[in-house]
């Protein structure tokens, strides 16, 4: 009898909960792909173009160093049988030193590029937070999620607002009101 009353109480509670949930307005949810907004917005493209121009020379320098290293290694491998053991060890030490210098320079360059990207994207992300917040308030959204956020496995195209945010950001950028990309 106790089990029956407990089960009956649970069923009634579930029915009341379902009725209450149905009576409430469902939450309005949207998703945005922020990386796409940055890549496709005018401000994001301007910032990325500046970064690419700034680091093009550095990337060429690194590629030249890499080519030099490969050539040195190939020459060493070709000449190794002709060299004395001491001369071969000296050349190998020289190669290892060049390799360490190259790796250090590459790591420094990668760090510098990441820092510059972060600095360039910071005002863009600040702009986007404001635009998304204003859009959410205006359109009555209860929740806006990042599309690539962990735990988001599927989103319907119906709730995607990425393109709308790109349009709003481009308008703000063209008016000169955007912080990013300048």
From TrEMBL:
Q: Which family does it belong to?
A: Belongs to the Skp family.
UniProt cross-references to PANTHER family, sorted A to Z: CHAPERONE PROTEIN SKP (PTHR35089)
Pfam (any one): OmpH
Source organism superkingdom: Bacteria
**Would you tell me the Gene Ontology cellular component terms?**
cytosol
Entry's Gene Ontology molecular function annotations: unfolded protein binding
Q: What InterPro entries does the record point to?
A: Chaperone_Skp, Skp_dom_sf
Q: Which UniProt keywords apply?
A: Signal
Task: Identify the taxonomic lineage of the organism of origin.
Answer: Bacteria, Pseudomonadati, Thermodesulfobacteriota, Thermodesulfobacteria, Thermodesulfobacteriales
Kindly provide the name given to this protein in its UniProt entry.
OmpH family outer membrane protein
Q: Which SMART domains match?
A: OmpH
Gene3D superfamilies associated with the record: Skp domain (3.30.910.20)
**Where are the coiled-coil regions?**
none
Q: Which organism is it from?
A: Thermosulfuriphilus ammonigenes
Q: Which GO terms describe its biological process?
A: protein stabilization
